Amino acid sequence: MAKRFAQFLFLVALCVICASGLLAQVRTVGQIIGVVEDPTGAVVLGAKVVVTDMATGLTKETVSGEDGRFVVSDLINGSYQVTVTMQSFRTAVYHNVKVDVGRTSNLTIKMEVGG
Fold this sequence. Notes:
By secondary structure, the chain is α+β, with helices and mostly antiparallel strands. It contains one helix and seven strands; from the N terminus they run H-E-E-E-E-E-E-E.
């Protein structure tokens, strides 16, 4: 009887451990993904993307890849400003980009020639 009870406790403990591991995988943050394009729709490689949390002022930076795409992950709920700079282009600023927990906000950044 004691052996069965010990096995039962072991199984319960195992279930609790597995369940806590699954809960840790639930997304508690959001992300902003996008693509940077020039006026013709061609992608812009190497554009600097700065994402600023409007509530805290904290920033995250990345650079657009070969396909013009960028990803900024691990963002908490809130409003963000996205600023994109690249030599020979005007700075592009997008205000009030919303980030929700577990969701992805998509942006297409249109850069204007100049500046």
